[in-house]
Amino acid sequence: MQWRWLLIIPALLAATSAAVTGQTPSQRSAGTKERPAAINILSIIPAQGVPGITVTLYGSGFTDTTVAFLGNQEVPTTVVGPKQLTFEIPRLAPGLYALFLKRGDGSTSKIYNFTLLPQKPVAAELSPDRIDLCATGRDREVTVSGQNFQERSQVLFDGAAIRGRFISDTSLAFTVPNVPPGLHQVQVKNVEETTSGALALMILGTPEIDSIFPGEERVNSYDLIIQGRNFQQGSVVVVMEENSLDPGAPAGALTKRLGSAGVSGTGERERIIYVNCNRIIYQRYPYSTALKNFRVQVVNPSGEESAPMSVSAP
Q1: Band of the pLDDT at 40, cuts 50, 70, 90?
Q2: DSSP annotation of 95
Q3: Reported pTM
Q4: Is 288 or 278 the better-scoring residue by pLDDT?
Q5: Rounded to an integer, what distance in angstroms lies between the CA atom of residue 126 and that of residue 200?
């Protein structure tokens, strides 16, 4: 009988314990199950950044229900493991934010400062990247393609702010100001004083002659209309006379450089009239009506020259 009492006594003790505590042994075992460790952040890489970059946090106590907060805004979070998680910085205004983690059970981490930097504009391409000096209207409009442009972004032309037109956060347009020919720099500046790198815009100043044709005729002179592009105030016309078709004409070639006042000190009556960037009038005084062969070239004040064009005229 003694062995029976050995079996009954433990059972009576367990029943007595359950009656006192109100829990079965299995319930007490479940109640003593470990709770998740406190959330602890050991490192934040990087500690500051711009919208769109990924931030990695290392620490402990991370679970699948852990999310990151910047200020009062929850940000999409990826939990890599119990000691690592990442999140992408959303598009927020630049400034100092409180960064902390919150778990599904309501526990939170210590708060850390996180600096959200303004996005720097990126200027990637100009279209077109070269224009003629005398382009007008829509032909002087250039589009800047890139990233992170704002409605209040400014276009910097050789460092000076000019008026631009916002198209989207990847596109701006502006009209090229009247500046000398050559290489110029274009940048984009945002309201936070961040500035893009510089792009090169070439303004072509080389004169080009498209055509030469007769204009007004007078008793002893007539006009030759020189039509083309990139002519400038102060341009000169070089006339290279060739062998004349008139047998009585002087032999050999003659070169004249004509400005608006003719050829200074020579008594030469021939001169040019600058009309605009596309037209120059050459006032010619022939000594006979016979056709002559000559070539015409435009030279700008900077020394840039057009290709010579052959003409047959009196």
Answers
A1: very high
A2: E
A3: 0.65
A4: 278
A5: 8
